[in-house]
Design goal:
Radius of gyration: 19 Å
Number of domains: 1
CATH topology: TIM Barrel
Bound molecules: glyceraldehyde-3-phosphate, 1,3-dihydroxyacetonephosphate, zinc ion
Shape: globular
Number of strands: 10
Length: about 325
Amino acid sequence: MISYKELGLVNTREMFAKAVEGGYAIPAFNFNNMEQLQAIIQASAELKSPVILQVSKGARNYANQTLLRYMAEGAVEYAKELGWEHPQIVLHLDHGDSFEVCKSCVDLGFSSVMIDASSLPYDENVALTKKVVDYAHQFDVTVEAELGVLAGVEDEVASEESHYTRPEEVIDFTSKTGCDSLAISIGTSHGAYKFKPEQCTRDPKSGILIPPPLAFDVLEEIEKKLPGFPIVLHGSSSVPQEYVKIINENGGKLPDAVGIPEEQLRMASKSAVCKINIDSDSRLAMTAAIRKIFNEKPGEFDPRKYLGPARDEMKKLYMHKIVNVLGSDNKAL
Ligand code: G3H
Ligand code: 13P
Ligand code: ZN
């Protein structure tokens, strides 16, 4: 049993309370490799932004949970080396799907876990979430839960209200489970294809898709029921069209990729939404940089010569999100 406190990590409790109070959101960036982690830490340290490092099931399978945990421990020391005296770094399990996975992360030194039982019937979601909370809280590890189902790429995001979180359930759910934050469904979804073209309008000049707005009315109702309670948005990549263009111009094929407009995320950050999950945008930044180099310099075969620029592009993206979308800069001085 390793306590995250010995590793210099923090849980989300205090940073969420400050973010809700201050009207900004904490970035939750997924990481799978060293370059992503370096870019996240460089951006957060330079901007003194609290940050959540997220480890998904895919990341655990790809890179190994233990190795990722040691990388996060190294990240704290790296942040200090970069001049960030008091780094506020959370190591978070993203979309934990069982009690055992959550427990293993708590035992390994994660400071926060998500139990995603949102696809289970309500009572089972409550029971499993409570079991994780009861375990995690013994070690002061914070727990994110989820109510409502994020629309999949194939679902009718704009029209199927039933996918959204039901505001009438949130008081019962949070009081019965004791969870520390709640991920809700208001129209965001995972990946680079968040809406089907027929759900969007198309800008006549650029041909770029303009997605339907998020269900801010549902968010407002939830906030009224749970004043000041930390709310989380998954699936919040914006799918920057400049990256999609670079990818498509350099041999890629991402037709009609579309995300959540940044303006809407800025609005959400000012509300009780205090954690915004971003993964796909970083994948796009990395892929765009690498594709461009492969196309322009076909003789290049030193990975540092394409992973280095990819890292720089991701850092630029993370800094942009922190300053211009979430407003979390200078909140961890
Ligand atoms: O929640 C989804 C994240 O983007 C992680 O995805 O399981 O492919 O790493 P992944
Ligand atoms: P995106 O696919 O929109 O980046 O969402 C990531 C996420 O929600 C991770 O949990
Ligand atoms: Zn997610």
